[in-house]
Amino acid sequence: MEFPFDLNALLPERISVLDHNLTAGRKSLGRPDPQRQISTVIDELGKASAKAQQLAAPITSAPKLQSNRHHLYLLKEGESNGGRGVAVGFLKVGYKKLFLLDQQGAHVEIEPLCVLDFFVTENLQRHGYGLELFSYMLQHKRVEPVRMAYDRPSPKFLSFLEKHYGLKDSVPQVNNFVVFDGFFRDRSAVQHRKPVPRKVEGEIKPYSLTERDVVREEQKALPWPFARPARPPLSPPLSLPSQYSRSLSVDSSPSRGPPRPCPGPGAYRSQTPHSQYLENVTCRAKRTSSLNRSQISFN
Ligand SMILES: CC(=O)SCCNC(=O)CCNC(=O)[C@H](O)C(C)(C)COP(=O)(O)OP(=O)(O)OC[C@H]1O[C@@H](n2cnc3c(N)ncnc32)[C@H](O)[C@@H]1OP(=O)(O)O
């Protein structure tokens, strides 16, 4: 993805690690408003990622990064675009407090590092850039892929995880997060286990939403005539097991979350744990396995 400014001057490293400060390590060297340009890069990549995944709206943007304790790894290719560089893709991770089911079906409250968004521009996919980003993140976070949770991974990402890390067998969940065999190994000492609550009759409401669901809630919150009709709930892809439904995430823990400016209705997950499952709730956005787009250029 090309930009009308010098990416190499903006992002000196091949992979930049960005957080809520939107800085790429080095201070501005007299460049005009580097933060605004970094925001543009993040916003455009976020939009392209959402489009590639057929999400209703981006789950990655500069304002979202500024209001969360996430890390965004941004990969550039410095030689291209007449030496000004192109943005190749990004990987966004963050800690999320989740309620997961372990191998025995017991409810476990846990706060793993999660992959939240991952994108390589269409024309550069299957060239090893995704692996470069992912392995950089693993080293930076000192984590193994099997110890991470994955927020509604796309078919391409599932294939990526199996190919590069041998992650294949997942532990069934009742939410959108996917964890693989080995995730719960040696965790019992630090986990706060909870008994699985009995299902209560009546209306079943989620007590928390994934970022992907938040995007949908934000859209629903718009007044008529601005609100766009929500997509009908879709069944999980045939190749995937039934665990790919809604999440029981309760967001980042208070200790990790930065101060947030007064969220709007539905903007963030409820913090109140609910004792009900979401077994029947499969309201989810459809992902696509591929989009044949030519090289994206932003001018
Ligand atoms: C939690 C989440 O973020 S889910 C969202 C994940 N993102 C997306 O689905 C957006 C579209 N896809 C992409 O951006 C990329 O394909 C990524 C980020 C998933 C992987 O990045 P890449 O640079 O393509 O990965 P890399 O080249 O290192 O590895 C290639 C492997 O990834 C998987 N993969 C990549 N593209 C495809 C594809 N079009 N179809 C199937 N598998 C694919 C395959 O396992 C592939 O190995 P193969 O070519 O031998 O079959």
Secondary structure elements and their pairing?
Blueprint: H1 7-10, E1 15-18, H2 34-52, H3 62-66, E2 71-77, E3 86-95, E4 98-101, E5 107-110, E6 113-120, H4 129-141, E7 149-151, H5 155-165, E8 177-178, E9 192-194, H6 211-220
Parallel strand pairs: 6-7
Antiparallel strand pairs: 1-2, 2-3, 3-6, 4-5, 5-9, 7-8
GO molecular function: tubulin N-acetyltransferase activity
Family: Belongs to the acetyltransferase ATAT1 family.
GO biological process, one term: neuron development
Short descriptors:
Atat, acyltransferase, Aminopeptidase, globular, 6-stranded mixed beta sheet, 3-stranded antiparallel beta sheet, Alpha-tubulin N-acetyltransferase 1, 299 residues, EC 2.3.1.108, binds acetyl coenzyme *A, alpha+beta
What do these coordinates show?
It is a single chain. With 299 residues, the protein is of the alpha+beta class. The protein has a domain at 7-190 and 201-220: Aminopeptidase (3-Layer(aba) Sandwich). 21% of the residues lie in helices and 15% in strands. The protein is built from 6 helices and 9 strands; from the N terminus they run H-E-H-H-E-E-E-E-E-H-E-H-E-E-H. It has helices spanning 7-10, 34-52, 62-66, 129-141, 155-165, 211-220; strands at 15-18, 71-77, 86-95, 98-101, 107-110, 113-120, 149-151, 177-178, 192-194. The strands form 2 sheets. A 6-stranded mixed sheet has the order 1-2-3-6-7-8, sandwiched between helices. A 3-stranded antiparallel sheet has the order 4-5-9, with no helix packed on it. Strand 4 and strand 5 form a beta hairpin. The chain is globular and about 55 Å long. The termini are close together. Residues 189-196, 198-208, 227-248 and 251-299 have low confidence and may be disordered. Acetyl coenzyme *A (ACO) binds at residues 52-53, 115, 117-120, 125-131, 150-151, 153-154, 156-157, 159-160, 163, 290. Acetyl coenzyme *A binds at residues 52-53, 115, 117-120, 125-131, 150-151, 153-154, 156-157, 159-160, 163, 290.
